[in-house]
UniProtKB/TrEMBL annotation, chain A:
The lineage of its organism: Bacteria, Bacillati, Bacillota, Clostridia, Eubacteriales. It comes from Proteinivorax tanatarense. Residues 52-280 form the NurA domain. It comes from the Bacteria. Pfam families: NurA. This is DNA double-strand break repair nuclease NurA.
Automatic annotation (TrEMBL), chain B:
SUPFAM superfamilies: P-loop containing nucleoside triphosphate hydrolases. Keywords: ATP-binding, Membrane, Nucleotide-binding, Transmembrane, Transmembrane helix. InterPro entries: HerA-like, HerA_central, P-loop_NTPase. GO terms for molecular function: ATP binding. It comes from Proteinivorax tanatarense. Coiled coil: none annotated. This is ATP-binding protein. It comes from the Bacteria. Residues 151-347 form the Helicase HerA central domain.
Length: 311, 591
């Protein structure tokens, strides 16, 4: 059924990756090296005060349609606290609208990207700024004690610097501890520090015992980062905190660890709950479009031909 | 509420976060194209993102859930209620997803849930899951069917009214349910309602529980007749067939016994003449021809008597002695039970004056009597309708609990043929059956098939559930609920309204003599004893151990030191008196 060429090429990749994996230094070596540069492995403290109002912030995006620009993009961001308040904003964007067209053109020009890449960038920016917006609005409405953002905080700074500054100052003024929970570690800064070839994901794999943590300050600008292993999954997860709030980072990790199912993939349950609520499924977006867009418009602009495949 | 997910022209799913959805609730789906559609909830489930303990593939441990609630998160609050709704009438095309669903106003579904007026029908209870319609219920339908819901007695929904007039088209009612399911209670409520309409009933009550005390309205509606002392069989009215049935009711008769009855029973025989004849034949057969001749030689006996014995021997000499002795024994048994000392006049008077007659007696004798009396009255009514008699006989209802004893499946019993005949032809003559049983499987199939309305209470036995499934329009899903129904909850399946309705039986107005819980009864009795003992002891309090002999002498009914100590200890344990330890032994003081 599959041609031989494909199989051969996959086997080759496997070999390459296997070599790369074998080149990763041993666990003991990495731990030693990390300690040499000042890293201090320790276990997460167990005593957690749950007398707080925890807010989770997450965004979601999904699209309907064929290729750029014949698409409809749906965005949603949610800030939800454990004490029962929840604040959601949503938006629908179509690259065929003049305003959006102009925005994409601007991004394309500034970053030297093709229009469709510029739209991908727009999605990222839009998602980040909506999450920031909903977080700031929710803080004003209902003051939480702790905020968990979905993903690294550095992302917000990159995509929407202005919005990030606003949220940061709100947190500092109101004494709200904020943390970004990193599910997928995508950096290579630690590996670089240790002069190991590869990404942090590979370097940190199976390095931690369950409930063990390691703190770094300033490997990302203005942020403290902590890596820890909250569940049985050997891949650690990370958390970003404001440098100004580094004193509270241990508390934050304890809280996140406490709220993480041990059999899961390492994300505090609250973020999963927020994610569950905010997520726009493909089914849902289809239902929305079916119900609220005229059939002819839908057909002319959006329905991809691949939907009509018969085999 | 909203329609969600995939829909068909018959079935939709409805979801809401705002309220619980009740099973059997009627809902209205507001479809822009199809108009307002009506449906019934057939399945409910509540979905909580965390309770399956599996979110995005990760199992959530209980301590994490606990922490969430400590953080102030209302886990129950994020529940989503989902219901499967079957439409009453098929729509031409599938229902639009996303359309609004709401609770109907009463008038919108009146035709589906109200089957008669309260004046002309039987108000049996409250239809389940109709609470949402109570507000829009017309005033005259409120407060007429109070039900007991966890100790709270009130009507919160639409009353269930059974249109008894429709029984003319769809006759006979079956009441099925296991022990403690509320079957007898349901029967009581049913009878109360029938009595309200002054429809005469013949109630066979093997459990001595169909008394209607506690409400004056019913006191004049029924007569209590105890079999043997109030009512019985007038022997001279019996024809040979009746007599065979009667004698065969408690113990089956052999062929030769039936033959013997047929030969010996004569028209207009009285009990005396018949028993004397039997006795005579027994004596004659015992003496035999030779013996009888000897008697003649001695000439000490009454010659007339001897002549009579000789005649009997000549007439019945070919009958086997053992069969006749068997008959004699069976007849004696009925006679001793008092069956022949009374007649059916009390029943007849009751029926003619529109009353219900409750006939109480042991189940074996009741079976015998019911056979006779059902046939007797049924034929009187039949003769009136056939115009072969001018004497008016009212239509009436025959009611019995433990009906499988009267019309058993698989074997013949004398009462079965009567019950079967009424089940099949009673409709024409206005004679109806209400049969209650714990075991529908044991009830004759022809009879079960004729019960056009069935009240089904909790049933646990698999075979019975299977029978009910065959004999009613209960669905698989409803059958699965049968073993778990609360006492007093009932499925009503009837040809009259063409579908199954879940209801809760209303509170009875009258009381059964057995309404007291036997354990409460025991406690009540023992506390009564304690009170009596306390009264005896009270004049001598305080009592110290030194006083015991003195007290013993004066007190009545307590005879030993041991007994007195026990009584005092018991009383102090129950809190009537106080026990104290003193240097001089125990001391008992009044409280």
């Amino acid at each position: 059924m599959y041609d031989k060429e494909l199989i051969e090429k996959l086997k080759k990749i496997n070999l390459t990756l296997n070599n790369a994996k074998n080149n990763i230094p041993s666990k003991e070596y990495i731990r030693e090296k990390l300690e040499q540069v000042g890293g201090n492995f320790s276990f997460i403290k167990e005593n957690v005060s749950l007398d707080i109002n925890l807010m989770g912030v997450d965004g979601s995006f999904n699209s309907f349609g064929a290729n750029y620009p014949h698409q409809i993009l749906v965005f949603r961001a949610l800030a939800k606290t454990t004490r029962g308040s929840s604040h959601m904003i949503s938006d629908v964007v179509c690259p065929m609208e003049d305003k959006v067209k102009a925005e994409i053109a601007k991004i394309s020009e500034n970053s030297n990207l093709s229009y469709s890449d510029a739209m991908t960038k727009l999605v990222k920016i839009k998602l980040a700024s909506m999450e920031l917006q909903v977080a700031v609005e929710a803080i004003k409405k209902n003051k939480p004690d702790v905020i968990f953002m979905d993903g690294s905080l550095i992302r917000y700074k990159i995509e929407d610097a202005k919005g990030w500054e606003e949220l940061k100052s709100q947190c500092l003024v109101n004494d709200i501890t904020i943390g970004g929970v990193i599910e997928e570690i995508g950096t290579n800064s630690i590996s670089q520090k240790l002069e190991i070839h590869g990404y942090d994901r590979e370097t940190l794999f199976n390095l931690f015992k369950p409930n063990e943590k390691l703190i770094f300050h300033n490997i990302k600008e203005e942020l403290s980062t902590i890596f820890y292993r909250p569940s049985n999954d050997p891949h650690p997860v990370g958390m970003d905190c404001l440098f100004e709030q580094k004193g509270k980072i241990e508390e934050m990790v304890s809280l996140a660890n406490h709220l993480t199912p041990k059999g899961g993939r390492g994300i505090p349950i609250w973020l999963d709950i927020v994610d569950n609520e905010v997520r726009i499924t493909t089914k849902a977006i289809k239902a929305l479009i079916e119900n609220h867009l005229d059939e002819d418009i839908k057909r002319v602009f959006f329905v991809p031909k691949r939907d009509n495949r018969v085999i | 509420m909203q329609v969600v997910g995939e829909t068909t022209q018959l079935q939709v799913w409805v979801a809401t976060e705002k309220r619980k959805i009740r099973i059997n609730e009627i809902l209205i789906i507001e479809d822009k194209d199809l108009g307002n559609l009506r449906g019934e909830v057939v399945e409910t489930l509540s979905y909580n993102p965390f309770i399956p303990l599996n979110i995005n593939g990760a199992l959530v441990e209980s301590n994490v859930i606990e922490s969430l609630s400590q953080l102030g998160y209302d886990i129950g609050g994020s529940e989503i209620n989902i219901a499967k709704v079957n439409l009453f009438h098929e729509a031409p095309y599938p229902v639009t997803t996303g359309c609004k669903v709401r609770v109907p106003e009463f008038f919108e579904v009146e035709d589906l849930i109200l089957f008669g007026s309260k004046e002309e029908g039987l108000v049996l209870g409250e239809i389940k899951s109709t609470q949402g319609m109570y507000k829009s219920l017309p005033k005259h339908l409120k407060g007429i069917a109070k039900v007991d819901d966890n100790g709270e007695v009130s009507q919160k929904g639409v009353p269930f009214i059974f249109p008894i007039k429709e029984m003319h088209q769809y006759p006979h009612i079956g009441i099925f349910g296991g022990s403690g399911s509320g079957k007898s209670y349901g029967l009581r409520v049913l009878l109360e309602e029938v009595m309200k309409h002054k429809i005469p009933m013949l109630i066979f009550d093997p459990h001595y529980e169909m008394e209607f005390k506690g409400d004056k309205r019913y006191q004049t509606s029924y007569t209590l007749a105890s079999l043997g002392s109030d009512v019985g069989v007038e022997f001279s009215n019996l024809n040979t067939r009746d007599l065979i049935n009667l004698l065969g009711a408690s113990h089956t008769l052999s062929e030769s016994m039936i033959n013997a009855i047929e030969v010996m029973h004569q028209r207009n025989d009285s009990l005396l003449s018949f028993t004397q004849r039997i006795e005579g034949v027994v004596t004659a057969l015992e003496l035999g021809k030779n013996g009888l001749e000897k008697v003649d030689l001695d000439a000490t006996d009454d010659p007339q008597k001897v002549q009579r014995l000789r005649n009997l021997l000549e007439q019945y000499g070919s009958l086997p002695l053992s069969s006749i002795k068997g008959l004699q024994w069976r007849l004696k048994r009925l006679e001793n039970a008092g069956l022949f000392t009374q007649d059916t006049e009390k029943i007849e008077l009751g029926i003619l004056s529109g009353k219900s007659v409750v006939i109480q007696g042991p189940v074996w004798l009741l079976g015998v009597f019911a056979t006779y009396v059902m046939g007797y009255f049924y034929h009187k009514r039949r003769q009136f309708k056939d115009k072969s008699s001018d004497k008016f006989y009212p239509p009436f209802v025959i009611v019995t609990d433990e009906a499988h004893n009267f019309a058993p499946k698989g074997y013949d019993s004398p009462s079965k043929s009567v019950v079967k005949e009424i089940a099949q032809e009673g409709r024409k003559y206005g004679v109806f059956l209400m049969l209650a049983t714990q075991r529908p499987t044991l009830l004759d199939e022809t009879v079960t098939a004729q019960l056009n309305t069935k009240l089904i209470f909790r049933t646990v036995r698999g075979t019975d559930i299977a029978t009910l499934r065959e004999e009613t329009d209960l669905t698989e899903r409803e059958c699965k609920r049968l073993p778990y129904l609360r006492s007093g909850d009932v499925f009503l399946s009837s040809a009259i309204f063409g579908r199954t309705i879940a209801a809760r039986i209303r509170m009875a107005y009258t009381e059964s003599p057995f309404s007291l819980n036997p354990f409460d009864e025991l406690r009540e009795m023992s506390s009564l004893n304690d009170k009596e003992l306390y009264k005896k002891v009270e004049p001598f309090l305080p009592i110290t151990s030194a006083d015991f002999t003195d007290v013993l002498k004066k007190i009545e009914g307590i005879n030993s030191m041991e007994e007195l100590t026990k009584v005092l200890e018991n009383l102090s344990e129950k809190g009537y008196i106080i026990e104290e330890k003193t240097p001089f032994g125990q001391s008992y003081k009044d409280k």
